[in-house]
């Protein structure tokens, strides 16, 4: 992550009980990875954990080969309470699997 929180990059390997990402039902796991990356960018951008993220996911292909996924999220635009983030997941060979975009809202006040 850059010092000002504009980018996060995460490399993920499948859990031990999977034989690779191709054996994973892609929807829930990949959208969760994108959501976490978008949220991390929001937390770093606002310098605090009180954020909530909204995510839109676009799948490029249903399964992937290889043992590692690279999740990247970048801050695109930032206001006082709202930032826009773009994210994607690539396989080890650079093939784009999923794209996403999201909005991260800074939560104001006590819970």
Automatic annotation (TrEMBL):
Source domain of life: Eukaryota
Keywords per UniProt: Hydrolase
Any GO molecular function: hydrolase activity
Domain called Thioesterase: residue spans: 23-96
InterPro entries cross-referenced by the UniProt entry: HotDog_dom_sf, PAAI_dom, PTE-AB_protein, Thioestr_dom
NCBIfam families named in the record: unchar_dom_1
UniProt name for this protein: Thioesterase domain-containing protein
């Amino acid at each position: 992550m850059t010092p000002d929180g504009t980018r996060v990059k995460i490399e993920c390997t499948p859990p031990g009980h999977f034989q690779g990402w191709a054996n994973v039902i892609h929807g829930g796991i990949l959208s969760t990875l994108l959501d976490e990356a978008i949220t991390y960018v929001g937390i770093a951008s606002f310098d605090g954990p009180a954020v909530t993220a909204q995510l839109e996911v676009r799948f490029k292909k249903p399964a992937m080969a290889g043992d590692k996924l690279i999740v990247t999220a970048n801050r695109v635009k930032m206001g006082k309470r709202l930032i826009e983030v773009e994210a994607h997941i690539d396989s080890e060979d650079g093939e784009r699997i999923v794209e996403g975009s999201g909005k991260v809202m800074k939560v104001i006040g006590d819970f």
